[in-house]
Automatic annotation (TrEMBL):
Ranges in coiled-coil conformation: none
The organism's place on the tree of life at top rank: Bacteria
Position of the signal peptide: none
Function recorded in the entry: Negative regulator of class I heat shock genes (grpE-dnaK-dnaJ and groELS operons). Prevents heat-shock induction of these operons.
A single MF term (Gene Ontology): DNA binding
GO terms, biological process: negative regulation of DNA-templated transcription
Protein name: Heat-inducible transcription repressor HrcA
Domain Heat-inducible transcription repressor HrcA C-terminal as annotated: residue spans: 109-340
InterPro entries (alphabetical): GAF-like_dom_sf, HrcA, HrcA_C, WH-like_DNA-bd_sf, WH_DNA-bd_sf, WHTH_transcript_rep_HrcA_IDD
Keywords: Repressor, Stress response, Transcription, Transcription regulation
Length: 360
C-alpha cells in the first residue's frame, strides 16, 4: 500500500480519532480530542485538520452535525502506518494456547477446534481456522482395528494429521482362526505401514504388488483392495474444511444491527463457505516464508456481504509451505492491534504444533 504522506500532526489526530472511535463507537469531534488526548493546539486547529482528513477520504461525517468516524481508507492508514501489534496480547494468547492445549493429548483436528474457541473467546469476533491441506497428502500411519467378530476399522492418518476411517469386513483367511484375529491385524498393520508410509495418492495407485512377500501372498487381493480404499481416502479435497466459532458474539456489536446485512453475512458463513475460504486462505508466493498478516478492511473485501467487516488472516505452515489459515472476522471498528497479534501468534503456534505432530 502507498504511504499517506500525512505530516506528524495529521497522523496524530487521525490516530487519536480512530482509537477513540474504536473504543466508543461514537463519532469524534475536536472537543473530544482536545480534552482526551492532550493536543497542544486549539480546538479550531483540530477541527480544521479533521476537515482536511475528511476531504482526503480518511474520515467522514455520518450526519452534518456530528463528529467524524474513520472510513475504510482511514482504517487502512491506521493499520499500515500508525499502529503496532500489541505484544502483551501476543504473550497472553500464547500462554492461553500453551496452557489449554496439550499437544500430546489431542488429535490435530481437535487441537484446531480448541484453538478456534480460544481465539473467538479472546477476540470477541468470529474465529475461523482451516484444516491443513498438503499438496502431496502422503500417508503417515494406518491401523487395522477389530470392532466386531467380522468387521474391522481402517484408520488412516495423513502427513497433515487429518484422520480418515472406514469400516471393512475382516478377510476370511484371518477369520479362519478367531483367536488370532488381533495378532493378524497387527501384523498386517505393521506390514502395510512399512510398505506404504510416505507414499502419495499417485504412488499408491501405481504400486506393483506382483512381488509381495510370500507370507502375505494369501492377503494379496485384500491388500490391493485396502490400498485402493486408502488412495480414495487420501484424495485432496478442492475446498478445505473449516472450523468456526464466535458468530453469536460478534453479532452483539452495533455495526451488525441492520437485519439485511446480518442475514447476508450469516448466509455467507453458513451456506457459501466456498466463497469465503479463498479469502481466508489467500497468500502470495512472496509471503510464503514471511509472518505477514493479511488485513482486508470493509470495501477491500470482494464479497458484498463482507463489506461491513474486516478479515484478518495468516497462514500456518508445514515446514516452509502454507497448509492452512487462521482468520478473524469482525466489524471494521476492530481492535486491530489486538486482533493482528492474536492471528499471527495463533498461526505461529499451529505451525509449531503441526511440526511436533509430524515428527512425533
Amino acid at each position: 500500500m502507498p504511504k499517506s504522506n500525512l505530516n506528524e500532526r495529521y497522523q496524530k489526530i487521525l490516530k487519536a480519532t480512530v482509537k477513540h472511535y474504536i473504543a466508543t463507537a461514537e463519532p469524534v469531534g475536536s472537543k473530544t480530542l482536545v480534552e482526551g488526548y492532550n493536543f497542544r493546539v486549539s480546538s479550531a486547529t483540530i477541527r480544521n485538520v479533521l476537515g482536511q482528513l475528511e476531504k482526503e477520504g480518511f474520515l467522514y461525517q455520518p450526519h452534518t452535525s456530528s463528529g467524524r468516524v474513520p472510513s475504510d481508507s482511514g482504517y487502512r492508514i491506521y493499520v499500515d502506518e500508525l499502529m503496532s501489534p500489541d505484544e502483551t496480547i501476543s504473550k497472553q494468547v500464547e500462554q492461553n494456547l500453551l496452557h489449554q492445549l496439550k499437544r500430546e493429548s489431542w488429535h490435530f483436528d481437535t487441537l484446531l477446534q480448541r484453538a478456534t474457541q480460544i481465539l473467538a473467546n479472546i477476540s470477541g469476533y468470529i474465529a475461523i481456522i482451516t484444516l491443513p491441506q498438503t499438496a502431496s497428502n502422503k500417508l503417515k500411519h494406518l491401523q487395522l482395528v477389530q470392532v466386531s467378530s467380522k468387521q474391522m476399522m481402517l484408520i488412516i492418518v495423513t502427513d497433515g494429521y487429518q484422520t480418515q476411517s472406514v469400516l471393512m469386513d475382516i478377510p476370511a483367511t484371518i477369520l479362519d482362526d478367531e483367536t488370532e484375529v488381533l495378532a493378524e491385524l497387527n501384523i498386517l498393520s505393521n506390514f502395510l505401514n512399512h510398505q506404504l508410509k510416505g507414499y502419495s495418492v499417485s504412488e499408491l495407485v501405481n504400486l506393483d504388488w506382483s512381488r509381495i512377500d510370500q507370507e502375505f501372498l494369501q492377503y494379496k487381493n485384500f491388500i490391493k483392495n485396502l490400498v485402493q480404499e486408502i488412495s480414495q481416502r487420501l484424495q485432496v479435497e478442492q475446498t478445505p474444511s473449516i472450523i468456526m466459532h464466535g458468530v453469536s458474539e460478534v453479532l452483539r456489536h452495533p455495526e451488525f444491527s441492520h437485519l439485511q446485512q446480518v442475514q447476508m453475512l450469516l448466509h455467507l458463513l453458513e451456506q457459501q463457505q466456498d466463497q469465503l475460504i479463498p479469502l481466508i486462505c489467500e497468500y502470495s508466493e512472496s509471503e510464503t516464508l514471511s509472518k505477514k498478516v493479511n488485513v482486508r478492511i470493509g470495501s477491500e473485501n470482494p464479497l458484498k456481504s463482507m463489506r461491513i467487516c474486516t478479515l484478518v488472516s495468516a497462514v500456518y505452515r508445514q515446514g516452509e509451505y502454507p497448509v492452512g489459515s487462521v482468520g478473524i472476522i469482525g466489524p471494521t471498528r476492530m481492535l486491530y492491534e489486538n486482533t493482528i497479534s492474536l492471528v499471527e501468534t495463533t498461526a505461529d503456534y499451529l505451525t509449531e504444533a503441526l511440526s511436533d505432530f509430524i515428527t512425533a
